[in-house]
Amino acid sequence: MDPAQPGATGHPTQGATPHPEISAGGAGADPQRTPPGPRRRWRLGPGMIITASFVGPGTITTATVTGSSYGFALLWTVVFSIVATVVLQEMSARLGVVTREGLGEALRTTFAHPVARSALLLLVIAAIGIGGASYAGGDTTGTALGLATLTGLPQPVVVALTGLVVLALLATGSYRTLEALLGLLVVLMSAVFVLTAVLASPDWSALLTGLVVPTIPAGALLSAVALIGTTVVPYNLFLHANLVQEKWSADEPTAAALTEARRDTTVSIAIGGLITVAIMATAAGTLFTEGITAESSAAMAGQLEPVLGPAAPYVFALGLAAAGLTSAIAGPLGAAYAIASTAGWSTSLKSRRFQAIWAVVVVIGVAIALTGIEPVAIIVTAQAANGLLLPVVAVALLIVMNRRGLLGAYRNGVAANVLGALVVTVVIGLGAYQLADLAGLLPS
Question: Which option is the CATH number for 42-372+393-413: 3.40.50.300, 1.20.1740.10, 3.30.1160.10, 3.40.109.10?
């Protein structure tokens, strides 16, 4: 629903009375929402934007390098990443549908102490604001590399045009426009990379073994961490809780909206996992078998010529451009939702403050891509902050999702808490490993 229409955002004011059945913790009828109408045709929605966010040039590069270095051995990490992402994103979507609040808003009411609230805001700004701006440079560069190959235009020109396109799309303030475009680009990526994987004729037996049998070859631990880290993204938890409010208005039946949101989340994120598996399988089938290690995603294009012929660079460039553009749009949007909601500002797509946040992120990303500067210090700081933020946000999300007064009958059950605790445990270990690596505490 376009946010300009009544009830599109549905964000309650601070201290607004929750739905009666939520306050009472019961599962009775919802008098504030209209009864179910005629069954409508279901289609993918916010989940595709989440997939568009995490399947970017970074994911393509990581999957390519990992597949060329270790074959199918680390495919299981993709399966774990998808399951973990579905578990956490389902909680985020449920929070948004039931309470009509974003994750930042829920965190501010859950951790009401001024010190805790200030620390959380600083951490979110450091990890998501600075990190998002840094990574936007990579997304913009990835998009420009792909489009430059396809169009023959100089890369600086394509970078500038990409930035203008991203700004224009976000400036529309239309959820429907963003959902449709990003969904289309995800479908395009799926078609390109899955078809390429099939044509590469990988060892299907080894592929299936890699998906279900956890192994970590010597020297592959950091790659395993990277694969998980490119999928389970902190700002997507903020992004999802707000996007579902744009998709499902406040007057829709809660149970029906949740059913659609869960299906959307599971299917969309599984598509993202399929794309990652396809990229790794292609690299394993074409590079690993020949003993060639790719140093970047672009290096794979040349190795695909035996499979795709002279079209190989263009096919791969198309997938890379789609991945870069999706992340270049969804990343700044996620950063804006995270910072605005945590700070207590409006998260309407039409809000000036909200627009200013994503605009700054996009402009910094374009500047990084144009200058070619490697912002090593900023990226290292952002990685360190993300290493801290993901476990913190995951634990905080679990705490929020167990609040009876906030969610009532829709709070976490035993199964959700067990799965969430397992994911959080792995995420904490992941964060600790990432920070230790950045600090140089791990053996080389």
Answer: 1.20.1740.10
